[in-house]
Model the fold of this input.
Amino acid sequence: MKNIMIQGTSSDAGKSYVTTALCRALVNRGIHVAPFKSQNMSNNSYVAEDGCEISRAQGVQAEAAKVKASVYMNPILLKPTRDTHSEVVLFGKVFQGYTGMDYRKDFALTYGVEAINQALRVLNEKHDCLVIEGAGSPAEVNLNDREIVNMRVADLADASVLLVTDIDRGGSFASVVGTLELLKEHRHRFKGVIFNKFRGDVGLLQDGLDWLEKQYDIKVVGVLPMLDDVYIETEDAQSKHLLYQYQVDNPLDIGVIHLERISNNTDVEPFIHEKDVSVRIIKDANQFGNPHAVIIPGTKSTIDDLNSLKNSGLAEKLIAYYNKGGFIAGICGGYQMLGSIIEDPELIDQKGRHSMEGLGILPVKTVFMKDKAVRHNKGQVEAFGENVWVEGYEIHLGQSYRQSGKAFMMDASGEEGCISDNDHVFGTYLHHIFHNDGFRNQWLNKIRSYHGREILPMVDTVKIKEESYEKLAEYAEQYLDMDYILQLIKGDHS
Done:
């Protein structure tokens, strides 16, 4: 069988959704598939079973394909640390940092191509077909001599390419035509176009679809509607997600502190399924208000973002909120910020600053070290009701030491995290802590009870996620020409 690749006319065209949909639709048809993205830029990570780090999107796509996530599915992960610098994670391990220019000059066509070829060999040996996701647009002519995410990967994988365009943002026909015109030397790879995020009567679009097929001899594989009832994790912090648009009457107000260098923002996504919860981003002190709970998420630079909180006045707001008995959860970098002191003797986190006082809310000291901790972890939490088991993953450079008080949870190594004496504030390195349905329900019910609100039963997000994968597959079967896609995969269409 042959591989298939999903490219887009722009970022956020819907490549990840289409790739995920095809992974589940194809496995439902009995084809053993795996996702692949050669290089992804995201601070949303997924820890594979071997303890290595890949992009969250490929981890989600592996779940949709019903296979275990592997570093070969995303051999190169770029984690931005500053506007012009990224940490390069190669096969799940930190390789080194590069500027954008140095990465293209010193890494892309050497280490990068070598890693991509190795990953493709391993995956092709184990699977019938790969569903490959591109990045951005393949028509970035200023980058094409050294790009390793789009057409070069299509050639290396010998893949048929389906081009996805976002019709909701406008200009989709021009975007498709422009892409095809700029990539004439690769026209033989393009086997179809998918229009995504369509609203209204598709009949009004038909003349344009017919024109495109006739003028460019390329098949319109389908028109996908705007999907507002599918909940899978977003790829990065820039993606607009229903979470922050969801409003309820008289909500349980949860504020998420805005961090410029936020990582793993998917930690808060399960709250969309709680019918009385509304999540909002708190960007400055004037927006703080009077939330029922506050979450400080992870970050790629704890010291930089903590300094920003202090300069913006949000640090003072958080301390005052804590003193009034407010509920605060700090995850990873957010946990480090809640402590009394952060030390960086080797300038790992932030060049030029060896230490910084934390918010002083939890009795914790953090010291940054060169070696990154990446692992799955699980343990038991007893703070919010009956003992409940939780699991997730850790990705962090610093080590935090509780100087007094209580541990947040008991894990295989003993104790992890810290929780205040009144159980209103906790910090943990465990990403996806709120994806644990029992824990999330206990935490929310403690907040609900404290504020005299109705106690609610647990929401099963595992079931909801599985239903979303199946719903995506159903949309693919309904709106895409899956028989044509199968012909491409089986090599029946030239």
Summary: The first helix runs from residue 15 to 28. The radius of gyration is 23 Å. Residues 236-240 have pLDDT under 50 and may be disordered. The chain is about 30% helix and 30% strand.
